[in-house]
Amino acid sequence: MKLPLKWLKEYVDYNVTNDEFVEKLMWRGFEMGSVDPELPGVEGVVVGKVLEIEKHQNSDHLNITKTDIGTEVLTIVTGAQNVHAGDYVPVAVVGAKLNGVEMKPVNMRGVDSYGMLCSGEELGLTEADYPGSSVHGILILREPHPLGQPIAEAVGLNDVVFDIELTPNRPDCASVIGMCREAAAALGQTFKEPEIKAVAGEGNEADYASVTVENTELCPRYTARVVTDIKIEPSPAWMQKKLRAVGLRPINNIVDITNYVMVEYGHPMHAFDLACVKDGHIIVRNARENEIVTTLDDKERAVDPEMLLIADPEKGVGIAGVMGGLNSEITENTKAVLFEAAVFKASNIRRTARTLRHTTDAAARFIKGVEAVNAKLALDRAIELVEELGAGKVIGKTIDVCAADLNERVVDIDTAHVNKLLALDLTPAEMRDMLATIGISSVACEDRLTVTVPHFRTDIESGIEADWDIAEEIARIYGYYNIKPTLMVGDTFRGGLAPEFRFEDLVKDTMACQGAYEMYNYNFTGPKALADLGIKEGDTLNQAVRILNPFGEDQSLMRTTLYMGMLDSAARNLNRKTGQYRFFEVGNVHFDNNDTLPEEQKKLGVVFFGDNEDFFTLKGSLEQLFNACSITGVSYRVCERSYFQPGRAATLVAADGTELGEIGQLHPDCAKAWSIDSRVYMAELSMNRMLALSGGTKKFSPLPKYPVVARDLAVVVDERRENADLVGIILNAPVPAGVIIGDVTLFDTYAGTGIAPGKKSLAYTFTLRAEDHTLTEEEIRTAFDAVISALAENDAPIRA
């Protein structure tokens, strides 16, 4: 925000140095970006008087002057023909800089020249800055000045411009009025708030224009005023100087008025040539499909139905909040104008500007937020300037289509809470007086403060956040440097991780200790990946959440399993020959299986591949994990999944029957889909179910004091019979009291010659022992017979 010092002094008694002002604003929360001279790019240029002038003997167009700058008389060669003896002129002496270029002595056709006489253009001056600046040749000062005086002082441009950096929550300060209000409070002065003179128009505005707002949500207020008999001419010098000081280029009186008001009040305005608006009827509506609007920069812009347009019954005449249309531009032939000051929804203007890739000064202000009361003030100020400059005849009254709430907001503040936040002890009356300095009125009552929020303070929230917002204002006014520093106070406590996070760390550490690398994959997948896994319609894994705005079809779904990402990593590491063949991932999967939110589940995925890996290395790794997590009694059941090799997959079942997950070898068809030419073994387990079963107390037993007896047997069973069933039968056989069966291990599987079709032979070894004595031959025989009988009764006869 550029704030010229001269403009500031119109509203505030400036009683400090520039450095002091910068510091005071800094403590109020406004950082100064820079303090720039009003005449930028000009250093070391002073007033000089031409004493003598003569023709250069070696040139027909150069002149040699003797120019007095107060401290010395310089010989300066110039090509200008409008210089005469006795003229006061700008002199760039040796060492001076013009737009970064340093002046040096030069030899011009045999004569040394020690400086340069400057034109208005070289000094960056316009005719509005100083009469005669546009003349082709040297700038001749209109009256005598002290020799050696800086040229900026001589032409009245010796002031400074403060470039203030604003925070996004203070759009009210993106205006001269708003910034001067804050500056007055910072300086301890009274803000001289300008009074806008009401202008009564002639005739009836309805005879010239009307306004219809079709979308009041995106345009809660639209105000307009008609002016006829327009006189297009340059704006007065004082207005041009002010616009130039804040970086705006003067154009003509009508356009300059809208820009001036935008800077002064912070509210963007626009002016339409009424002759170009069909029937004088402004319609604020959403754009139509395939509609094109040519903006003031002569570019055709395609708009969409999400954007708001200013239109007439036939066409768009401007893109709301961004830029006006070329078809309603103010020109030298304009005779009637409709001034507009409106309020547009910030989020919609942000989307429009981003979509069009075109952010104007007006759009930037609308994006930060404007408010409805200020729109009317800005329009009234513009009409006041029209009247003051004699730019036209004001017609009728203000056209005001308003759906916004213009009532004052009142918030109730707990002053004790404010004091607690700031570590202060201020009374409600003291807070009231502080707030009054920045235009916020309030009423103090016991320990409460009833605050009436001014229309321009849109950053002060209602509700529970009001105490914090008012506390911030009190701190700024009281002075952060006046608040006594105190040590932080708070209860001490011992931090820790929640059980689910501790368990996740345990799982990750255990897998990493077994040589597996952790991986992170995208939560997104696509229909093709599910199809490559052979997942059919109706399968639970097909209940994927569809993303509304996906990056592409291959990332259009939320994953329902970790397998896709694991296989991507396996294929990538095989192709690049990284030498790493064990990976795991702990991640979330999502299922679209209810009418509210998708169901989220946390899974552990493990993938082993390479020449040294097989089903049993993965199985052993998981069993080591179960042991670390104190999960006991896990058994394996036959599993049939489309992505597993038939006969080489299993479901992992806990002792209480809970399914923990699955393990298996990747089906060759799936391996081909991922271009993997190695056997891949993978597993997926439920983290939540494992957590529920983990944490059991580990029991330790003393080593046996008496000998154990090993026995082997082989049984013939159906080829689909599972090992876990037989192990359970052996362990639970009705052996004599005191005899313990343990260490049941399958050591051989056979099918072929000697075994009936559809059958297989399983060979087991197990041990027998007792806690308090050495088993007798009778006890051993009886126990062994009991195991054989139990197997036979469960369709597992001893192999002959």
Helicity level: 25-40%
What is the average per-residue confidence, as pLDDT, rounded to a whole number?
93
Strands ordered across the widest β-sheet: 26-29-30-34-33-32-31
Report low-confidence residues grouped into runs of 5 or more: none
Put simply, the count of helices is 20
**Major sheet, described briefly?**
7 strands, mixed
Structural category: alpha+beta
Shape: elongated
What integer value in Å does the Rg equal?
44 Å
Share in β-strands: 25-35%
Number of strands: 37
Distance between the termini: 99 Å
What is the subunit arrangement here? single chain
Quick summary:
By secondary structure, the chain is α+β, with helices and mostly antiparallel strands. Helices cover 26% and strands 28% of the residues.
Topology:
Elements: E1 2-4, H1 5-9, H2 18-27, E2 31-37, E3 42-55, E4 63-68, E5 73-78, E6 88-98, E7 101-102, E8 106-108, E9 111-113, E10 115-117, H3 151-154, E11 160-165, H4 176-187, E12 210-213, E13 221-228, H5 237-245, H6 253-265, E14 270-273, E15 281-286, E16 291-294, E17 300-303, E18 308-311, E19 316-319, E20 323-324, E21 337-343, H7 346-356, H8 361-368, H9 372-389, E22 393-402, E23 409-414, H10 415-422, H11 428-436, E24 441-445, E25 448-453, H12 466-478, H13 499-513, E26 517-518, E27 524-525, H14 527-532, E28 557-558, H15 563-575, E29 582-591, E30 599-609, H16 615-628, E31 635-638, E32 644-653, E33 659-666, H17 668-673, E34 680-686, H18 687-693, E35 709-718, H19 723-731, E36 740-750, E37 759-769, H20 777-793
Parallel strand pairs: 12-15, 26-29
Antiparallel strand pairs: 1-11, 2-11, 3-4, 3-6, 4-5, 6-7, 6-10, 8-9, 13-21, 13-22, 14-21, 15-18, 16-17, 18-19, 19-20, 23-25, 24-25, 27-28, 29-30, 30-34, 31-32, 32-33, 33-34, 35-37, 36-37
Helix pairs in contact: 5-6, 6-9, 7-8, 10-12, 13-16, 19-20
